[in-house]
Amino acid sequence: MAAEAPCYTVVFEDTTESPSTQELRASLEKGTDEDRLDTLRRIIVSTINGNPQPTLLMPIIQYIMPSRNKQLKKLLHFYWEVCPKYDENGKLKQEMILVVNAIRNDLQHPNEYIRGATLRFLQKISKDAELLEPLIPTCRSCLEHRHSYVRKNAVFAVYTIYREYEHLIPDAPELMQTFIAAESDATCKRNAFVFLAHCAMPKAVEWLISVYDQLTSLDELLQMSIIEVIRLDCKNDTTHRPRYIRCMFELLNSSSHAVKYEAATTLTTLTQNPAAVKAAASCFVNLVIKESDNNVKLIVLDRLDTLRSKHGHILDGLTMDILQVLSSADMEVRRKAMSIVLSMTSNRNVEEVVLFLKKQLQQTQEREFEKAPEYRQLLIQSIHVLAVKFSEVAASVVHALMEFLGDSNNPSALDVVAFVREVVEKFPHLRQSICEKLTQTLTEIKSGKTFRGVLWILGEYVEGLSDIQATFQDIRKVLGEIPILASEQRLLDEAGGEEDKKEEKKVEGSGRPKVLADGTYATETAYTSATSTRLEAVKTASKPPLRALILGGDFFTGSVLASALTKLVLRFDDLTNDRPKANALRAESMLIMASIIRVGQSKFVTVPIDEDSNERILNCIQTLSELQEKSIVHDIFLKDTKAAYSKMLVAQEKTAAEKKESESTKEHVVQVDDLLTFRQFSKKSADDPIDYVEDLGKATGAAEVREDFISNLSRISQLTGFSDPIYAEAYVKMHGFDIMLDVLLVNQTSNTLQNLCLDFATLGDLKLVERPAVYTIAPHGFQSIKATIKVSSTETGVIFGSILWDGPALAECCVILNDIHIDIMDYIKPAYCSETQFRSMWTEFEWENRVNVSTNMTDPRDYLKHVMKSTNMSCLTPEGAMSGDCDFLSANMYARSLFGEDALANLSIEKTEAGIVGHVRIRSKTQGIALSLGDRITMSQKDSKPSI
Question: Most buried residue among 20, 310, 591, 772 by CB atoms closer than 10 A?
Fold first, then answer.
């Protein structure tokens, strides 16, 4: 396989202090070694950037080549690599004869460093046969040098020369076979073995079989090369496969983690034997536990997950071993390991897994460590999944998890509430015990969201008469004295005392008169400040948790409490014939609700009660006052809400099942005239073989060239006008993180355009990789120029520039190019995240762009689809939540860029007689992506047409 042409990096060159050729020549001739180093470095940079200075070749040969300075010699090798070695006719320059002679002397130098460095340099000029031919005998003699540094570089020098020009060293394979048999140094052996593997595979296999019994004692690098050879040899029909399998088994016990990983990976491609698969999986698990690098852990876990998907039943015994990976401190590793464990858990091992997770959960409470709240949340979510999937463990874990309802980490407590809510719906026999436990933990709950979830569960699932009464008593405990306003006022009065009242009378009227807004007089007294101090003291006094939330302004929780009490009273009334008890319970509930409304309108709360909560609590009071009069309202409270939750669970299960089915059944469309790959017939006994060359082709996109003429035309941008001296157009192609510009220049004049330069500049996070060269275009001639631009973030970028050339009398002529705007949609892909993650990011991200809706569309759902299509965002709001006939629509959308940037959007619109009104709010961590998506939505609204 021929190597590609050498590629050089464009190095920044400071042109402000660019010395002339004469100054450079003088510095080479008369300067010190430090001056010469600096001068030679300048010449190399200038040559790389397309400005070779051929007149300095001879001075370099005269004054630099004889130097004994090792830094100069190394820098000289760089210069020989990049300098022009051929004249205009393609013949080797005469001066290069002197260079070849100097290289030969360095190859015979007594210093092994100079010999080795020169041999490495030969690998860089392996395409210049005329330079290499005189050096072959000296290069061969270096294979017998006493120092291993020289020998190992000599092997690769011979390898690169043989690969390019086999006729220069026709006996190289035999030479390497003799060399590897006599060699004692591990690195030299490895290099020689790599040579044989790529140039003479039968000889490499022959040597491998000869050292088969010593494999475990070989050097790590040599073992890696042996694994590579085995992988390559097994692509063909080899008779050594059984030996190779035994060899991989032995290398699984290597001390090197890299060798272990490669051996385990290769073993699964050679055989599907259960013992081999289990051994490879065990090796992967040990690697994850022992390896310290988190990136390596994730890579190995990915490989283990792939193995599990193909051989799940074989790996069931390793579930508890994989759980040991949870000892890692990195949350990504824990999440990946947990997802594998959840997919491997079955009826046989679910109890062991749950027991282990419960112990881990207990440890997060007993001792604090880094990211303990996140780890606790992960454990709770995992136990949730297992308990719902395997009903036999639900009873054993639900009570243990309810201990975390009072967790100070709000997400963990919410996960427990979600888990309990699902269990209590799916397993009716557990409802009574769960509800009893919930009422006992009410005093420990701290957050409003957790209270709302628990109160909803109690309102829906507490069913017995005695249970309802007990629940009322426990709610009164966390609510405190009723009515709330009267008790708070009494506390305020008691805090004032009789003495304060006397002081008030003395001080009252003694202040300076003040004129109020309505023109009347008022007197400022000391009583005002004293009262406010006492009021603050009453507010900050210790209170029961639910009472503290209501006084703190959380009236949404108050409205949920009212709804739960209403359900309990309605259910109690249906079950009992004892009217006095039922009426007492109803009166108590109405008192609590009225008390919440009254205190919400008083000075004792942080913020006054909102209109929605006020209206909802009043509706509950009205429902209780008309207890049996309206059966529709009765059914809404007792039946419809529970039915809606059941429907939501069914929809979630259906979505999860569809997702699992779509992942497991992948359709492969095969056309009747497709070629048959016969390797499919011979490789049924193994996993997919690893072909790094093929993988590299897929990664770089070389194997997926699917472009059609029409799509290419849509990406062409006209850069100049038809009447300009030069017509230019560019084909803009996105390729990963690069933008490829293929520019066509047409000389529309009858003159030859000399020293023509295409100069590009960028705006935004774009960076020009290389500067285009200087060209000469014949009259009415064409020139194609390619340029590459790196993209580093998802922001709207602009490429602009000009074309410069020498006109008549060396006057500089110029044509300014049209701007090329880069579409960020090529870098944004739809993605999905959980509701919790969305809310967390929405709170965290600081950049927001609000776009008002202006469209001719009349259907809110059509507008949502239009926005999703124009922004490449996915809708996170379930379809069930948006179903039904409603004029309002609110939906969350999410996308990720190729650079890992998150983009969030919330669409809130209403259908009115005048059309759709509302707005789209976009949030991101960086300003650019928020502004770019907003501009995209604004443009798409202008382009949208009314639906037919």
Answer: 772
Instruction: Give every CB contact of residue 48 below 8 A, 6+ residues apart in sequence.
Output: 8, 9, 10, 11, 82
One-character DSSP codes across 257-306: HHHHHHHHHHHHHH---HHHHHHHHHHHHHHHHH---HHHHHHHHHHHHH
State yes or no: pLDDT of 768 exceeds 80.
no
CA contacts within 13 A on the Cβ side of 942 = 5
* DSSP classification of residue 393: G
d(CA 58, CA 185): 41
Q: How many CB atoms lie within 10 A of CB 823?
A: 14
The residues near 327 (Cβ < 8 Å, ≥ 6 apart) are 289
pLDDT in tens, 389-431: 777 777 777 777 777 776 665 677 777 788 788 888 887 887 8
813, β-bridge pairs: 805
DSSP-derived 3-state class of residue 884:
coil
For residue 699, what are its two tokens?
């990664």
Give, for 618, the enclosing helix (H) or strand (E).
helix 611-625
What type of residue sits at position 759?
D
What's the pTM?
A: 0.64
CA gap 749, 511 in Å, rounded: 95
Element (DSSP H or E) covering residue 920: strand 915-924
Q: Is 900 left (phi over 0), alpha (psi -120 to 50) or beta?
A: left
> What does the pLDDT look like over 518-556, one tens digit per residue?
556 555 544 445 556 666 665 666 678 888 888 888 888
The answer for residues whose C-beta is within 8 angstroms of residue 841's C-beta and 6 or more apart is 833, 902, 904, 923
Q: What is the distance in angstroms between the CA of the first residue and the CA of the last residue of the chain? A: 59
CA atoms within 13 A of residue 508's CA, in its CB half-sphere: 7
Q: Which helix (H) or strand (E) holds 929?
A: helix 927-943
Closest CA to 769 of 745, 799, 796: 799
As a whole number of angstroms, the distance between CA 335 and CA 326 comes to 9
Q: Identify which of 838, 860, 828, 819 has the alpha carbon closest to the alpha carbon of residue 933.
A: 828
**Contact in structure between 791 and 820 (CB atoms under 8 Å):** no
Strand partners, 747: 726
CA 148 – CA 816 distance, rounded (Å): 59
CA distance 839 to 877: 13
As to burial, measured by CB atoms within 10 angstroms (0-12 exposed, 13-18 middle, 19+ buried), residue 468 is buried
Q: Are 535 and 518 in contact (CB under 8 A)?
A: no
Sign of the alpha-carbon torsion through 94, 95, 98, 102: negative
What per-residue confidence (pLDDT) applies to 683?
A: 46
β 513-515/716-718 pair status: unpaired
| Distance of alpha carbon 615 from alpha carbon 632, whole angstroms | 19
* Closest among 603, 584, 587, 595 to 558, alpha carbons compared: 595
What pLDDT was estimated at residue 921?
Answer: 92
**Rounded Cα–Cα distance for residues 550 and 556 (Å):** 9
Of 936, 940, 941, 912, which Cα lies nearest the Cα of 922?
936
Going by pLDDT thresholds of 50, 70 and 90, the confidence category of residue 690 is low
Which residues touch 464 (CB under 8 Å, ≥6 apart)?
A: 432, 575
Alpha-carbon distance of 8 to 83, in angstroms, equals 12
Q: What share of the chain is helix, strand, coil (3-state, %, to 5)?
A: 60, 10, 25
- Structure-block tokens of residue 341: 């464990």
